[in-house]
């Protein structure tokens, strides 16, 4: 690019910045005989003045000679009032002598391009606060640099390399990591470092913006998102969104969007995708946009679209222009060395006793030996361990994550109680309030986890000690004072870490009692993976027994796979279900037993148990068992024929136990054991169900000279059963799109049947035609049904 083009580019950048605030700004304005680079007007103390702008993009600093010449060129225009002020904008700062010259010149002003940006965008106070944010946080005393999976160097170093990458299309970096891996700390560290660099070298460094997404509750446009952040939290009166967006297009910003997963909890999938469209508008050539959050905020399909930019049509993926791909990086867990470094720094900063190196290292070695490595892999949990380890009497042997958080919360409350004014409220009442507060703020509509004091409902305080409060407002204020909650600007409160919030929600759930169906629905919507893990580790059964009671009374299945998993972990329920007869088993029981550890560990036992339910369970239970049995056919493709044969064998044993000599209208068909002359089988309704329909519609006879075969359409059988179970509220099973047609020998199906049933099925197979014709018969008396079932 030649010098003229460079100068024009610099001038255009200045013009666009000025236009964001001064709409009449234009180039090549006439001032007497001189063509100014830019002319605009502005109000000054109630009077409109005209400003001429000279843009100087030199490879050196301007000196007094330069300013004298510029001022001389505009002398006539300034004297006759065609312009009132002359503004010189340069890419470099000037020396003290030049500043003295400008101060003496009444109509001359000077700004660097960085000065102009700060003036028009109005973010100087914000950047100064951001530069201090990490250093002023105690975490900097023991912070350990994170790492990315499969990448050398620290996460900080890798992001720095990306920020300074000259590739103009390398605009978006997504940092993904589970809870407590240090995403927000990394975001704060990066923003604070970049703010310091910008303040030291504003002409060459990007201006950082750290935007927490936890307060985004619905589809939001960029202007509203940035405006709310800067004007409500930082009260920046001169903030300009238009100027900010121009800086972004000029490659002058580093935008950090932290916590997209927290945004997801408060909105629909449609709104979530719409917000990603807005984020992608920031990603123009030369920009740098950093995105951080938990990967489990996405479904598999959403992840491919929103992060990788891939849409799916049929079985094919293609690049979606509305969703450009982000460069992905995943944060690593702490390794043992990082755990030790973190604990060493933390204990040294937190406890005077631990300043003794030998005492500190001995305690760290004890912790590493006694505690599960998985707990120490996450920085947030390592910090909790550090707080507990500061007490030399605390033992970590056999500690689960649930107990770790439980003891941490108790210790925090105990410390709060040591303050005399708070000792009048029992510690258990404080814990109960925190659990109630956590559940309310987690499940209420709108922003999840953030709330204003005045919004906290009084019923959360019901039954709790008044302490020394004289009224309900004083009582609420006293209970809200906790080391587990922190206050943002503008009176916003939130839990100090999201995992603390999730633990308290799980603690609240374990104390559920007298549930109604609506409560279970709300619970299903509230539980995420982390809360489910806390609940599994709690080993509490009471709330699960309550959920089971409610679902059983409604004769429905859980709509949430996490609740199904939790129910399957309850030993009391497993024991209770295992003592039921096959006829007493419900569809809910089938799912619970199928997902229990005892069944998952032994596939053969699972097949045997499900097979018994298929043969002699009630229709809905048998259909559910059939679906789960049939699922194994897809999970074990090498044994498809064996599993399919066993499945059909169980289905036919069920159907044969329901053969009736009377059709639905009461007409007798005594010949051929309930088989009419045209080969129709009349089956009692209690033995037909979806399984009978699947046999009729999706199996066919193939009679050969040397062999008798049965052809089954596996995909359609699976679809019939899956659609039926969905009506009971269960939607966890995947849709199967494979075209599976499986040929089976009749002998493989009859193998294992009783002699009577084998002969019956062979006679039915011998009937002319390739279909198995099953029709609804008339139900027999209970006494006859019981006799027939006992034979089977």
From TrEMBL:
SUPFAM superfamilies: P-loop containing nucleoside triphosphate hydrolases (SSF52540). Residues 171-297 form the NACHT domain. GO terms for biological process: DNA restriction-modification system. InterPro entries: NACHT_NTPase, P-loop_NTPase, Restrct_endonuc_IV_Mrr. GO terms for molecular function: DNA binding; endonuclease activity. It comes from the Bacteria. Gene3D superfamilies: P-loop containing nucleotide triphosphate hydrolases. It holds the Pfam family NACHT. This is NACHT domain-containing protein. It comes from Rugamonas aquatica.
């Amino acid at each position: 690019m030649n010098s003229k083009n460079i100068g024009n580019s610099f001038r255009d950048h200045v013009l666009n910045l000025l236009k964001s605030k001064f709409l009449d700004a234009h180039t090549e304005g006439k001032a007497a005989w001189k063509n100014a680079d830019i002319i605009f007007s502005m109000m000054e103390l109630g009077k409109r003045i005209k400003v001429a702008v000279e843009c100087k993009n030199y490879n050196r600093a301007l000196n007094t000679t330069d300013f004298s010449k510029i001022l001389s060129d505009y002398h006539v225009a300034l004297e006759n009032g065609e312009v009132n002020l002359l503004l010189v904008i340069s890419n470099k700062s000037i020396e003290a002598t030049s500043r003295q010259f400008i101060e003496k010149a009444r109509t001359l002003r000077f700004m660097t391009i960085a000065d102009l940006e700060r003036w028009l965008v109005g973010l100087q106070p914000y950047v100064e606060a951001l530069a201090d944010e990490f250093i002023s946080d105690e975490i900097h005393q023991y912070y350990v640099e994170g790492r990315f999976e499969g990448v050398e160097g620290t996460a900080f170093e890798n992001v720095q390399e990306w920020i300074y990458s000259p590739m103009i299309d390398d605009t978006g970096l997504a940092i993904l990591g589970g809870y407590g891996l240090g995403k927000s700390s990394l975001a704060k560290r990066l923003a604070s470092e970049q703010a310091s660099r910008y303040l030291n070298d504003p002409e060459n460094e990007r201006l950082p913006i750290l935007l927490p997404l936890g307060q985004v509750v619905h589809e939001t446009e960029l202007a509203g998102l940035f405006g709310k952040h800067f004007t409500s939290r930082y009260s920046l009166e001169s903030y300009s969104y238009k100027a900010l967006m121009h800086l972004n297009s000029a490659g002058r910003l580093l935008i950090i969007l932290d916590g997209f997963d927290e945004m997801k909890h408060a909105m629909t999938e449609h709104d979530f995708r719409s917000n990603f469209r807005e984020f992608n508008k920031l990603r123009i050539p030369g920009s740098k946009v950093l995105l951080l959050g938990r990967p489990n905020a996405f479904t598999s399909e959403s992840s491919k679209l929103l992060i990788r930019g891939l849409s799916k049509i049929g079985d094919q993926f293609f690049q979606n222009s509305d969703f450009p791909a982000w460069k992905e990086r995943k944060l690593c867990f702490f390794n043992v060395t990082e755990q030790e470094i973190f604990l060493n720094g933390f204990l040294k900063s937190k406890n005077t006793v631990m300043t003794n190196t030998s005492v500190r290292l001995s305690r760290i070695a004890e912790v590493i030996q006694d505690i599960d490595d998985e707990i120490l892999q996450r920085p947030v949990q390592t910090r909790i361990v550090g707080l507990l380890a500061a007490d030399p009497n605390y033992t970590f042997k056999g500690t689960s994550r649930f107990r770790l958080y439980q003891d941490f919360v108790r210790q925090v409350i105990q410390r709060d109680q040591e303050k005399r004014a708070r000792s009048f409220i029992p510690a258990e009442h404080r814990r109960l309030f925190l659990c109630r507060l956590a559940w309310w703020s987690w499940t209420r509509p709108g922003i999840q986890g953030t709330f204003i004091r005045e919004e906290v409902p009084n019923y959360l305080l019901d039954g709790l000690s008044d302490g020394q409060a004289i009224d309900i407002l004083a009582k609420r204020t006293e209970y809200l004072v906790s080391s587990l909650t922190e206050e943002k600007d503008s009176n916003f409160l939130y839990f100090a870490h999201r995992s603390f919030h999730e633990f308290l929600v799980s603690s609240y759930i374990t104390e559920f009692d007298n549930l109604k169906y609506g409560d279970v629905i709300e619970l299903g919507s509230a539980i995420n993976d982390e809360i489910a893990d806390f609940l599994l580790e709690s080993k509490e059964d009471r709330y699960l027994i309550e959920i089971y009671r409610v679902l059983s009374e409604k004769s429905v299945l859980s709509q949430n796979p996490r609740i199904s998993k939790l129910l399957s972990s309850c030993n009391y329920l497993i024991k209770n279900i295992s003592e039921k007869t096959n006829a007493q088993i419900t569809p809910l029981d089938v799912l619970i037993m199928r997902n229990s550890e005892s069944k998952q560990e032994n596939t053969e036992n699972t097949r045997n148990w499900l097979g018994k339910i298929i043969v002699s369970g009630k229709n809905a239970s048998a259909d559910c068992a059939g679906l789960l049995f049939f699922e194994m056919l897809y999970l074990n493709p090498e044994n498809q024929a064996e599993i399919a044969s066993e499945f059909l064998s169980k289905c036919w044993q069920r159907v044969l136990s329901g053969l009736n000599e009377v059709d639905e209208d009461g007409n007798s068909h005594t010949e051929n054991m309930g088989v009419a002359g045209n080969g129709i089988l009349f089956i009692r309704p209690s033995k037909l169900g979806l399984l009978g329909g699947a046999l009729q519609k999706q199996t066919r006879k193939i009679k050969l000279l040397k062999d008798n075969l049965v052809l089954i359409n596996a995909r359609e059988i699976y679809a019939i059963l899956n659609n039926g179970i969905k009506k009971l509220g269960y939607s966890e099973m995947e849709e199967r799109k494979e075209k599976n047609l499986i040929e089976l020998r009749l002998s493989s199906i009859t193998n294992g049947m009783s002699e009577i049933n084998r002969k019956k099925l062979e006679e039915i197979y011998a009937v002319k035609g390739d279909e198995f014709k099953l029709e609804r018969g008339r139900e027999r008396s209970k006494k006859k049904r019981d006799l027939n079932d006992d034979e089977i």
